Amino acid sequence: MRWLDVDLGRRTVTVSAAYAKSGQTRTVPLNSVLLAALTRLPEISEFVFAKPNGKPYHAIRGFRAACQRTFVTSLVENGVDLRTVQELGVWPTLSLIQRYAHKKQRMRETT
């Protein structure tokens, strides 16, 4: 992700078609937690997540899956319907979303 893709004023990140699994450019809203985290990051390079030498990180094991789980869980916890979550995450089916939603429901029932 590059800083030019981040619009802190509008609270969005643009995902270019080259990096989107759907192959389409889209704009994603930032929640207040992510906005605060991005605001605190130093701009040492054109890349948001860069090594001290300015080169980008290419992969962080488990990061993508953790982001997806957090994204789905946060939206479901705040009452967003599953179809909207599917659209925002650009998932072709509801199966992954339903899995995360059911896990969260089970966790609430046991506490």
Characterise the protein shown here:
It is globular and about 40 Å long. The protein folds into 2 domains: 1-57, no CATH class; 59-111. By secondary structure, it is mainly α. A 3-stranded antiparallel sheet has the order 1-2-3, with no helix packed on it. Helices cover 43% and strands 9% of the residues. The chain has helices at 32-40, 63-77, 82-89, 95-110; strands at 6-7, 12-15, 26-29. The protein has 4 helices and 3 strands, in the order E-E-E-H-H-H-H.
What does the radius of gyration come to?
16 Å
Mean pLDDT across all amino acids: 82
Tally of discrete structural domains = 2
Kindly estimate the percentage of residues that lie in beta strands according to DSSP: 5-15%
Query: What is the succession of H and E elements?
Result: EEEHHHH
- How far apart the termini lie comes to 37 Å
Overall morphology: globular
- Can you summarize the main beta sheet? 3 strands, antiparallel
Helix content: 40-55%
Q: Strands of the largest sheet, in order across it?
A: 1-2-3
Spans of at least 5 consecutive residues with low confidence: none
Structural class: mainly alpha
Tally the helices: what do you get? 4
Total beta strand runs: 3
